[in-house]
Input
Amino acid sequence: MSKLSFADKAGFISIGRFLRALSKLLLLIILVRLLSQFDYGTYRQVIMLYSLISVILILGIPTSIYYFLPKLKEDEVKTFVLQSQIVLFFLGLLLGFVFFLSSRYWGTIFNNDSLPAYLKIFALYPIFDFPIQAIAPILICFDRHRAAAIFNVMFAVNDLFAVVIPLLLGYSLYTAFLWLAIVSALQMIFAVVYVVRVMGGLHRFFNISMLREQMTYSVPLGLSSIVTIISRELDKFIISLYFLPQVFAVYAVGAKELPFVTIIPYAVASTLFPKFVLLHEEKKIDQFFDLWHKSIRKVSLLILPFFPFFLITAKEVVTILYTSDYLAAVPVFQIYLFLLLIHIAAFDSLILSMGYSKIVLFSTIIGLLLNVIFNVIFIKLFGFVGPAIATILVTFSITGYFLYVIKSKLEVTWNEIFPWRLYFNILIISMGAGIIALPFTFIRLAMWPKFILISIVFWGAYAVLLHYFKLLDDDDISFIKRWFSLKVLFS
Output
């Protein structure tokens, strides 16, 4: 058993996902400079379709690993892991056929004659990517958080080079997608071999009763993931229907949650999920909520200040990341920032750790229906930014419902399920730092010096306010020292 604290384990997963997200962001930054807006819009359409369709066939299997592995006996673990990987491989193969056979259809839907050729070559990618998606959950459940972080970074960096290098050498996006598939195949082989070594060898490939139980849990979870992805991407789909690929490319730049910010609550949820499962099984509700509140507090300290910071620097951020050609995306970017206010916890993960995957499915279906209605209405009322507004309103509504479910199932009060006072104290301090830094946004300076100046003022003010109002405890300070000194990386 690892001697790392839960904070350090979450730190490793967060750093790994941060670097992975940074690599993906860097890929987009490079692509907007290497490709025309039409080709970049086509690339984003391929990735959007993969995000939408892959979740249909992956059936929530990677997430189900968090729920089952902590509860299985030692002799059942190898069988469970191997059968999960085998099922994912064949589901990925099935998705490849779906992409290949439906490529003409999507080209017609998106008014993009170039799309079918790209989808046919991209059809190789899910065959190898599906098994890869189970690697991090497996390693986390084996208490190998450092290894999970390393694999996260390695996969993302390899994907970046697989796409960028062919383009830099003058090859087409078609060739880049081919190399992405080849690199993914090599990654899958390496990762699976490593996991087998971690487990200490192979065992029975299948246990039908165990597989049936896994599917009973994961299918509703997979269906809810389908609905969640569709709902999350619906605004971009609506924009694609109403506007040309060039306009979609601009909207897609703004309608993107900041990956290096939003990964933190999900990294924490991944780390704590097995613990929540055991505490709920043992009916230790006080410890359950104590751990829940502590995680919300730590994540809020990290996440909430980014809301006012990026709100006042939106123009600079979009220009620095995507060039001034995409400044029209700034209003959409600012609207999407409101999601940070609820991304201080993965509320659905808490419900899933209690075994209620069908409730999550029901809520996401209702959310999708509301999203369709409001997206259509709001694009007519507010135009280009309408779908973004609709997405925010529906997401907040579903989060409120998740809190109600937690309250009802565990029979606790509203004050017990969420640390409201602490949350609003951190938010007020964050907004205060934003108000202090706001006047500096009107200073006439070049883009980079101005952004650096605002950053120094804002984060300096936030640190001072945290210290003044004593919102950092000894554990927080100790955690900061360990990570800034890099001791935790080698301990």
Q: What stands out?
A: Residues 85 and 191 are 11 Å apart (CA to CA). The mean pLDDT is 85.
